[in-house]
Amino acid sequence: MSVVGPRIRLFFSAVTAACLLALAGAAQASADCADADTVPTADNLPAIRAALICLHNEERQKAKVALLRSEARLVASAQGHSDDMVARKFFAHDTPEGISPFKRMRREGYITPDVFWNAGETIVWASGTFTTPRNIMYSLIEKPIERLTLLAPNWRHIGVGITFGVPVDRDPTAAPAVTYTVNYGVRLGEKKRLACLRRAAKKRQTAHRRLMQATCPGRG
């Protein structure tokens, strides 16, 4: 499941769930990302986060868009949401009280009144050996909405939250599971925002022009 939006929330999808319960032969990525095939444990989460970011950047490099770097405020927002989903057994971008990804990013200080911003989020949970970063990336890149989200060219930052457990009621004897939240974002000054709007204005088709305009960063 993924969501993307600037100040006025632009939902590409609010209903597509990316529950990775089983995979029949995940696509092979390069061997450049260490720990891409490692199952998360309590002792290796920094390595798992680094591997998932590396896999994101592999895909973004193929797509010829900007690479991402980890951003502490997005990490805090993503980790808090993964923890909350598992603790309260819900699988959604908005909390039961209606707290959106953007409100969480604002609470962590990533979205502030003095910047133009854009942000997005993907969520996914998996069990057993399907919890590895490579399998998580496969589950995201193979779904059209999630692919659009993680390859959005204006992102510059990423934050990965990883929590052991599932965000839904489940047989307690089932294989151990892990819940991931990935937050994406960009914070820009006025000049870059105007450049984004100028690029959008060049699109001849109204639908394409409006979509590009909607993805240009908005005031925090």
Task: Write a short abstract of this structure.
The protein is of the alpha/beta class and 220 residues long. The chain has helices spanning 45-62, 72-88, 101-107, 133-141, 144-150, 190-201, 206-215, and strands spanning 2-5, 18-20, 69-70, 116-127, 157-164, 177-188, 218-219.
- Taken in chain order, the helices and strands follow as EEHEHHEHHEEHHE
Report how far the terminal alpha carbons are from each other.
Answer: 24 Å
Uncertain segments are 5-30
Q: How many helical elements?
A: 7
Helix content: 25-40%
Report Rg: 17 Å
The count of strands amounts to: 7
Mean pLDDT across all residues, rounded? 84
Structural class: alpha/beta
Proportion of residues in extended strands: 15-25%
Shape: globular
> Biggest sheet, in brief?
7 strands, mixed
Could you describe the 3D structure shown?
The protein is α/β, with parallel strands linked by helices and 220 residues long. 36% of the residues lie in helices and 20% in strands. Strands 1, 2, 3, 4, 5, 6 and 7 form a 7-stranded mixed sheet that branches. Helix 1 packs parallel to helix 4 (133-141). The two termini are 24 Å apart. The model is unreliable at 5-30 (pLDDT under 50).
